[in-house]
Amino acid sequence: MSVTVQFCGAARTVTGSCHLFQTGAGRLLVDCGLFQGPKTLKALNYSAFPFQPTDIDAVLLTHAHIDHSGLLPKLVRAGFRGRIMATRGTIDLCSYMLPDAGSIQESEVVMLNRRNAARGRVAVTPIYTQADAIDSLNAFHAIDYETWFEAMPGVRARYWNAGHLLGSASIELEFAGEGAGGKPLRVLASGDIGPDAKLLHSDPEAPTGFDYVVSESTYGDADRPSMTPELRRQHLAAEVRAAHAADGPILIPAFAVERTQELIVDLVDLMERGDVPRAPIFLDSPLAIRATEVFRQHSASLDSKIDLDRLLRSPHLRPTETVAESKAIAKFTGFHVIIAASGMCDAGRIRHHLKRWLWQKSATVLLAGFQAQGTLGRFLDDGAKAVRIQGEEVKVAARIRRLDEYSGHADGPELARWIAARRPIGRGVFLVHGEEPALAGLSERIAERTVPAAKVFIPILDDIYELTTSAPTPIDVSRRRRLAPEAVVALDWHNDMSTLILDINDRIEAAADDRARGVIIRKLRRALEARD
Ligand SMILES: [Zn+2]
To answer: Which member of 9, 154, 157, 170 lies 3.0 to 4.6 Å from 16 by CB, making a disulfide possible if both were Cys?
Structure first.
């Protein structure tokens, strides 16, 4: 018999998490996430899965984030008829997040087709619609933490708190009779791991003694100063006071789920204590408003020291559900708080607010989470002087600030400790879900110290490994790859292109006069027409 794993996503990238486990008896997926960031990766969302959806027996979902769950509606639409196992918290969040993702797909395609029509290209259809997403919710099946269940014949599974998000889990898998000497083959898929001392959650946990551990690496190269909830609030307060002193709004591009609720809890608390000036906190995201409701419903299962239910009902909080209410925020001047999705600024209402405020010195943008390569948030974080939003160039004069303390992810030392606590690990550790420096950073932290360096593997998209051998054996997939390995790793040309256009604009604008501008343009034209 044999057990293989195929890394169908989040292998040398941070998004699109999806691992396919195959045995003689069937196939199961851990996660089925959407690719985000560079256009080359996003294009994969539109192309066929690297497996037959009708052949998949079950999906085990680690948590509700779209980069882990966002292709489930596509999977169901393509003929998957099994069950999607998830915790109750994950199901409640997905019941809002997936339909929201469906409507984003629909509106992105409307814009894309407008551009395609102008260039005489054929129209594309959405990856899936809101209706597909609602339909996929019927496949969900609730799982309790720390309780074994049969995932498919010959495979049992158990969920452990991953401390990353409401309902988040690491998944323990046992393949009956496939380990050494006829024992079960034991595998642990980390999902995303939360940091120690996170607001709302207890620290991540999982059992010990595995053949394989598949671990995320998002912040594998980061070593954050150790954090307490009190210290985190103080840092937030300092940012809010500075924004108030600049007499403009503070725009927080927030991940609608969890980060938003953590920020609201702390902002309301700071305002109530008089540690920061009081002002309206606009919650400008229908999804974040729904998610806030889910958090209130689950408040009993979250941190008992925080009165989540009361704080999330604060009169300071102004949910703006409709487009008209959202537009009315633009009338506000002076200090106020706007929390809007998406967290990486690549979609959602935050883009309207950025267009309105980025060019003004009085405004503050507070980036409160991971910014993937190729996203608008990453360009801002990298100090871009101008960016493109909805086809228009916008100068950046606002104060761009960054607050890492609200990360939902463990840092390098915390991830290394989490892996070490799973020992003994007999055959190998696969590092996934990270950009190159993060993967290298985590690999360095665990190689030799935690497991022999030869047992650390960093797969690339679509790699397949045989797991029943004494060490993981790669299977030749050169003919089956969806992307060349270098295309997975490199920042793609679309990003180089936007940077080039912005640089050209900068140079032309900075030129002394129109004559000088003409010279630059002629030189560029000559370079363009030169044969290489
Ligand atoms: Zn996540």
So the answer is: 9
The residues, any chain, with a CB within 8 Å of residue 93's CB and separated by 6 or more, are 64, 165, 166, 167, 257, 291, 294
Instruction: Collect the ranges in the chain with pLDDT lower than 50.
Output: none
Spell out where 272-398 has E strands: 281-283, 317-319, 337-340, 364-367, 386-389, 392-395
Distance from the CA of 164 to the center of ligand 1, in angstroms? 7
Residue indicated by tokens 């009361």: 310
User: Residue 316: its pLDDT value, please?
Assistant: 95
* Ligand 1 center–CA 68 separation, angstroms: 7
Q: What is the pTM of this model?
A: 0.86
* Spacing, Cα 191 to ligand 1 middle (Å): 7
Q: How far is the CA of 117 from the centre of ligand 1 (A)?
A: 36
Phi, psi of 263 (to 5 degrees): -65, -40
CA of 168 from ligand 1 middle (Å) equals 8
Distance 409 CA to ligand 1 centre (A): 8
pLDDT of 138: 98
Q: How far is the CA of 501 from the centre of ligand 1 (A)?
A: 33
Our measurement of the distance from residue 207's CA atom to the centroid of its chain's CA atoms, rounded to an integer in Å, reads: 26
Exposed/middle/buried for residue 125 (C-beta within 10 Å: 0-12, 13-18, 19+): exposed
**For residues 378, 383, 385 and 387, what is the CA-based torsion angle, rounded to 10 degrees?**
0
Cα(254)–Cα(263) distance, integer angstroms: 9
362 CA distance to ligand 1 middle (Å) = 33
Enter the DSSP assignment of 202.
Answer: P
Residue 144: count of CB within 10 angstroms of its CB: 10
Report how far ligand 1's centroid is from the alpha carbon of 98 (Å): 14
Residues whose CB falls within 8 Å of the CB of residue 18, separated by 6 or more in sequence, listed in order:
7, 8, 9, 10, 29, 30, 31, 32, 33, 71
Å from CA of 74 to ligand 1 middle: 19
Cα 65 to ligand 1 centroid, rounded to whole Å: 5
Q: Tell me the C-alpha distance between 393 and 386, whole Å.
A: 7
* pLDDT at residue 37 in the model: 79
Query: For the chain, how are helix, strand and coil distributed in percent, rounded to 5?
Result: 40, 20, 40
14 Cα to the center of ligand 1, angstroms? 10
Output the CA 67–ligand 1 centroid distance in Å: 7
In the block, tokens 């069950």 appear at 83
Identify the sign of the CA torsion 20, 37, 112, 257: positive
pLDDT at 493 (0 to 100): 59
